[in-house]
Amino acid sequence: MSDASAQDRVAVVLIGRNEGARLVAALQSVSGKARRIVYVDSGSTDGSVAAAEAAGARVVKLDMTRPFTAARARNEGFAALGADLPEFVQFMDGDCALDPGWIETAVRFVDAHPQVAVVCGRRRERFPEASIYNAICDAEWDTPVGRTKACGGDALVRTAAFAAAGGFDPHLVAGEEPELCVRIRAAGWEVWRLDAEMTLHDAAMTRFGQWWKRSRRAGHAFAEGAAMHGAPPERHFVAETRRALIWGAALPLAAICGMLVTPWSLLLLAGWPLQVLRLAPRLGFGHAVFMVTGKAAEASGVLEYHLRRLAGRPSGLIEYK
Q1: With the CA atoms of 268, 275, 149 and 96 taken in that order, what torsion angle do they form, in degrees rounded to the nearest 10?
Q2: Which of 140, 222, 134 is nearest to 173 (CA)?
Q3: Same domain (yes/no): 182, 49
Q4: Where is the domain boundary, 185, 205, 225?
Q5: Domain that holds residue 25
Q6: In the chain, how many domains are there?
Q7: 293 and 228 inside one domain
Q8: CATH number of residue 15's parent domain
Q9: Disulfide: which of 34, 46, 166, 258 matches 12 by Cβ 3.0-4.6 Å?
Q10: How many CB atoms lie within 10 A of CB 108?
Q11: Which DSSP helix (H) or strand (E) runs through 98?
Q12: Is 319 part of a structural domain of the chain?
């Protein structure tokens, strides 16, 4: 299959806000790789709209008087393709650049595997050496190859399967991709991760506060996903939610409350360094420290979701950059 034949069967939907040079790189990377390119902008003030128009993309400007989510942006980008849909859509974030060979590789794979609806490859951080937080992101993107349960924000999707599933849930502030994959798999399709380069991502995370917000957002996604699809047999995000609450909330709370009985209860906090030592041989010491510490941020996200739910308040967007 030639690049041209793959290109004619694919559209690209990019989403972003104030991505600047990152968006320009994203647009350049998809030029000539798809039949159509749609850029969905969520209130940029840095010239992103003009850059997308100059690159030949169709621009969709979101109505920012309505609550924003990445899921809603992707859905509106898909809707902008109209009735003449290509076979596949490559979803991407505006801070990513597409690998030159990815589209052809992905289309060839799904052609050979008609049961596959979603396929992703290796997403890498552009500057993993810039901070420990970027390095952790790069390690997180290195997921197992083969049939899997979910993809991330960059993925090639069969438009028929996407439309039949109803697209992303626009109300989710995070975790919308795994949630969509739950519904797609329930319809009998498969999700695969290929051993192929897909995108370069620029997390631009250099501060502890950014990493904390990102971890908090993950906890929120775990809690909401478990609330939606936590029942057997899926058990979506149930284990992740449980780990966040045990390590990030129950353990320190038990240690503090136990001091009312005995100061020896503070020994419970030794569970954290012991967990770091257990994980360090596999992850590296720095990554292990932040993984364990991050459970407190994740627990705060879990609790935030449930408190908002009890109060009947909608969840707010959690952005780390």
Answers
A1: 120
A2: 222
A3: yes
A4: 205
A5: 3-205
A6: 2
A7: yes
A8: 3.90.550.10
A9: 34
A10: 13
A11: strand 96-98
A12: no
Tokens of 93: 């974030």
Please state, in angstroms and rounded to a whole number, the distance separating the CA atoms of residues 78 and 36: 11
* Torsion of Cα atoms, 162 then 164 then 168 then 172, to 10°: -150
CA distance 209 to 233: 36
Task: Mark which of 180, 205, 230 sits at the end of a domain.
Answer: 205
Q: How many CA atoms lie within 13 A of 276 on its CB side?
A: 14
Are 28 and 140 in a shared domain?
yes
pLDDT in tens, 262-305: 888 888 999 999 999 999 999 999 999 999 999 999 999 999 99
* Domain identity same for 220 and 182: no
**Judgement on whether residues 196 and 223 belong to the same structural domain of the protein:** no
Using only the alpha carbons of the chain, give its radius of gyration.
21
Question: Do 59 and 34 contact (CB within 8 A), yes or no?
Answer: no
Structure tokens at 109: 């794979």
Pair 41, 175 in one domain: yes
Beta bridge partners of 146: 193
Tokens 């552009």: give the residue.
126
Q: Note the pLDDT tens digit of each residue in 73-95.
A: 999 999 999 988 999 999 999 99
Confidence of residue 1 (pLDDT cuts 50, 70, 90): low
Backbone angles phi, psi at 42, to 5 degrees: -110, 60
Q: Are residues 287 and 164 in the same domain?
A: no
Based on the domain organization, do 140 and 288 belong to the same domain? Answer: no
- d(C-alpha 277, C-alpha 269), whole Å: 14
Degrees to nearest 5, angle at CA 212 with 207 and 214: 100
Cβ 198 vs Cβ 99: under 8 Å: yes
| Helix 238-245 and helix 208-229, axial crossing angle in degrees, nearest 10 | 130
Question: What are 241-258's pLDDT values in tens digits?
Answer: 999 999 999 999 999 999
> Is the pTM of the predicted complex or chain greater than 0.90?
yes
- Return the SS3 of 95: coil
Q: How far apart are CA 217 and CA 36, in angstroms?
A: 32
